[in-house]
Specification:
The chain starts with a strand and ends with a helix. Helix 2 packs parallel to helix 3 and helix 3 packs parallel to helix 4. It contains 6 helices and 14 strands. Strands 5-6-7-10-11-14 form a 6-stranded mixed beta sheet, with helices on both faces. Strands 2-1-3-4 form a 4-stranded antiparallel beta sheet, covered by helices on one side. The radius of gyration is 20 Å and the shape is globular.
Length: about 260
């Protein structure tokens, strides 16, 4: 809900995204000042020290499982980069060594990325059938089937989503929800399910055209619709500021209750 109103005294009202990014970036150790407003709150000044930041797209943490059962592996996927599938495999191998009782996949604020990485990760849980299908304007379809041995096929799984879960994140969540009956917990996802191509035009311009839409395994269109959580749970500003996460708590409870 944050809006950046100005960067180093320069208004962002007519600033393009690329220009804003360029203004925010700079030498590590230097500082940038922003005026930020959250919803209807009063604007506030935020000063940030720039740094070189490297974020792994897949991380692992742990939570207690049901009484007498193994811990729950919490796998956070922040985006689908070129190495997300490999990182996910590494993380799950580490998790399997501790005999987890289930997996909580956190896709909140994941804007998407490489389709093949989402398919590869879904294939860790799903043995067969389409993970996602592309439907083109002429009605033809192209399915992306599960591939691999699905080493996580027998583990309970739940998925966290919110309004920032988009594109490939919705593909993974939709496949796990429909094929594995994994409960979706949190808030309505973004609804980005279009396939686009660039067409070159005379004079050096490009035109981006939508050529297909993504469908879930059961044929639901992701574009504009998004995914509706099976268990709606809000995360409020007060929750965030007081280090509470009711969405994560709800997902963990579902997994504990599902443990035989």
């Amino acid at each position: 809900g944050d809006a950046i109103l100005s960067i180093d005294g320069q208004t962002t009202q007519s600033m393009t995204l690329d220009a804003a990014v360029a203004q925010l970036r700079g030498k590590a150790g230097s500082k940038v000042s922003m005026i930020v407003q959250t919803n209807t709150d009063s604007p506030r000044t935020v000063e940030i020290t720039r740094a070189k930041i490297q974020i792994k797209s897949v991380t692992l943490s742990w939570a207690d499982g049901a009484t007498g059962k193994g811990p729950i592996a919490v796998v956070t996927i922040s985006s689908f980069s070129q190495d997300s599938g490999r990182l996910f495999t590494n993380v799950t191998q580490e998790a399997l060594a501790k005999n987890p009782s289930g997996f909580l996949i956190d896709l909140r604020n994941n804007p998407g990325g490489y389709l093949d990485q989402a398919v590869d990760i879904a294939s860790e849980f799903i043995t067969a059938g389409p993970i996602v299908t592309e439907r083109f304007g002429d009605g033809t379809e192209k399915a992306y089937p599960a591939s691999g041995s699905a080493p996580l096929r027998d583990f309970p799984v739940a998925v966290l989503i919110n309004g920032g879960s988009a594109s490939a994140a919705e593909i993974l969540a939709g496949a796990l929800g429909e094929v594995r009956s994994a409960p979706l917990v949190g808030e309505q996802s973004f609804g980005k399910g279009s396939v686009q191509e660039l067409e070159s035009l005379p004079g050096g311009a490009n035109l981006k055209l939508t050529v297909a839409h993504w469908l879930t395994p059961k044929g639901k269109t992701i574009e504009k619709n998004g995914l509706t959580p099976d268990h709606p749970v809000a995360l409020t500003k007060d929750d965030y500021e007081n280090d509470r996460d009711p969405q994560r708590d709800a997902g963990l409870k579902l997994l504990r209750d599902a443990t035989p």
